[in-house]
Write the structure tokens for this entry.
Amino acid sequence: MKKIVWPLFLILLAGLMSACSKQEANAGAPIEAASVEWTEAELEKVDNQVSSLSSRANELQKEVNALLGQTPGTGGSSEPVFLDVKADYWAFNEIMAIYHDGVISGYPAIQKFLPENSITRAQAASMLVKALKLPLSEAPSPFSDINSDHWAYQQIMAVTEKGYFRGSNGKFLPNDPMTRKHMAVVLQRAFDLQVTTEPYEDYKDVPQTDDGYLYIKAISQHDVARGSDGYYRPSEPTKRSQFSVFLYRALNY
């Protein structure tokens, strides 16, 4: 604001000095005193106008941030929230998007997301509940390894009731890494992604006889997953960064 007021002040002052010089002989001190008062009044008007413009600019910036989906105080979508997910990280935008949506929170105590760690089945269930805004469930657990004391009990029951997760041999295996194949199964069920008639090139490591073939094909045709160099790597653990990206794409679909 000072950068705007000072040039205006100098212009006004120059005009006043010129006017005063011409009127000194006729008006004397009373006119000069009046001119000073007039100058202060005019400067106050200018200051008020600048303050008004500054306030309006701030309001416009808030509106722009809202349109861009940016959260005040976070620096928008370009400021790192996690120490291990910088702006140049390959999944930065997707991780930040679902972070701002409240789907993930990472590990606040250490300010990290640990994107290269494998995501567990319990963590995936929790993220899916938040992403789809599913109501938590207090239903009795059908799994021998999940009871009401488990940190993700309500989330696991919620996704189980929906049929997104089904467990194995009476167990949920909450701490097991979620494989890329099972990730495809869960996302296909949760988002009802159907196989289309669009051209599709099979992955080299997912034959049509594989029990996860149609699930993997469905999420690939909808661009949720893309594989790498023609391989899907179905038995590999899904990284936290990968699941965040897959979930973000599915949500946008």
